[in-house]
Sequence to fold (131 residues):
Amino acid sequence: MLSRPSLCWCAIILAAFFNTVHAQDSVFSGTFEILFCNAGTPNSDAAYLQALLCHVLKGLQKTITDVQLSTASIHGFTAFFKTNNDRAIVQNVFQTIISAPKLGLDETDPVFACTDPSQDLTAKLYADCLQ
Fold:
């Protein structure tokens, strides 16, 4: 187990690393940041993720329009809800996803990162997430 000072140094080193990589391999899709995905390269994971996020956000806009119709909707809302009681909650969830609010104490942008499971750091972070 790492001591508290060691953890602080690890955090400082990781922050410096991410800032360096951030400048080199980073792109935004709306308010979502995409890291480590070969930004600026045609047919890269970054390009595919940018296109995917664009389609998802457009779909969510259509869903919000449908939710605003409540039970008068002829599409999805009436398939899941028979009353208007939850309309505001459902609409708020989808609008929160679209607005991509800042996360955490430092209020950072939501980030997507491409990872390689064969890398030790990625494997460790993944294992930590499963616990």
